[in-house]
Amino acid sequence: MNRTSSSQYQNGVYGRWIYRRPCRDSLRPPRKCRGLCLVEAKAQRAVVVLPGLGNNSQDYKAVGEALESRGLHVQCAAVSRPDWLRNAAGLRQVEYWTGKLQPRPTVDWYLNKVDAAVTAARQATDGPITILAHSAGGWLSRVYLLGFGTEQIDRLVTLGSPHQAPPKDLKLVDQTRGILTWVTDNVPGNFHQEVGYATVAGKWMKGARLRGSGGSLPQKLVGLGYQQVCGNPEVWGDGITPVPAAHLEGAEQITLDGVYHSPLGGGTSRPWYGSPDIIDQWLRVVYDGKELDTDFQVEVGDMVAPQQ
């Protein structure tokens, strides 16, 4: 097969591109065309997106497109909303009722979908992989790395993920029925030293105590949720996950003002982590320091040509 190559600046990333035929050799799905096809060399960083509880893959379509426009290969775990009903399998275990449930095998269905997405990313590029996990996908990603390994994965970035189990001394109910407690005990902080961790939290609303004169009704309702997660209703959070629970020890911690938890029910008046103006506030942590310091100039999250 005859191939020619050249260095070009394409889709926000400067790299080596290869012209070749036929199209079926392309990393993209086969399509009809005439002449030679432009195919990116397999050295691109990949981002594997992990949906949060109750979300499906389509909820992250805009995020994926935004990341692809910045020169990243994006793969999203194929999760549908009905898939989350599979967690009900834990009801059959005694540990569920005693609050000592372990993640596996209850969440194996999710971990297998993550592994399929990571495998597809490895096949698409020889470059490093960033796991980008939203909400419950954050602590599920920690279980994944423990059970499936970190091959080619060098970054873990979580968005609004409730990483910390409720404080044991407050005798609060672990809403995951013990799974998050198990994760906290067995995969603490930046457990995998070969992986760079970054946790992103949002300050959308400060909670308030249900019984008290201070705070609006929405703040009191949000405070109830915060209290169940971290034990304190009077903290800032993204409306679902309180800031104290969203960060991991040893991770780079980013807290963003005015950011809501979910892509659902948002809009311009309630931007979430994946909104266009918000992505650029955390995009740099998708890359490792070497990429930012030596290979690329980065300004407001946009990739430009490498330094000469």
What structural keywords apply?
single chain; 308 residues; alpha/beta; Rossmann fold; six-stranded parallel sheet; three-stranded antiparallel sheet; 13 strands; 20% strand; disordered N terminus; AB_hydrolase_fold
Structure description:
By secondary structure, this protein is an alpha/beta fold. Helix content is 27%, strand content 20%. It is built from 9 helices and 13 strands. The strands form 4 sheets. Strands 5-4-6-7-8-11 form a 6-stranded parallel β-sheet, sandwiched between helices. A hairpin with a 2-residue loop joins β12 and β13 (302-303). α3 crosses α4 (136-148). Keywords: Endoplasmic reticulum, Hydrolase, Membrane, Protein transport, Transport. Residues 126-168 form the GPI inositol-deacylase PGAP1-like alpha/beta domain. It is found in: Endoplasmic reticulum membrane.
Overall shape: it is: globular
Number of helices: 9
User: Assembly state here?
Assistant: single chain
Total domains: 2
Helix and strand composition category:
alpha/beta
Tell me the major beta sheet: 6 strands, parallel
N-C termini distance: 32 Å
- Helix amount, in percent? 25-40%
Strand residue percentage? 15-25%
CATH homologous superfamily descriptor of the largest domain:
Alpha/Beta hydrolase fold, catalytic domain
Radius of gyration: 21 Å
Q: Architecture of the largest domain, CATH level 2?
A: 3-Layer(aba) Sandwich
Order of the strands making up the biggest sheet: 5-4-6-7-8-11
Output the helix-strand order: EEEEHEHHEHEHEEHEHEHHEE
GO molecular function: hydrolase activity, acting on ester bonds
Subcellular location: Endoplasmic reticulum membrane
Family: Belongs to the GPI inositol-deacylase family.
Function: Involved in inositol deacylation of GPI-anchored proteins which plays important roles in the quality control and ER-associated degradation of GPI-anchored proteins.
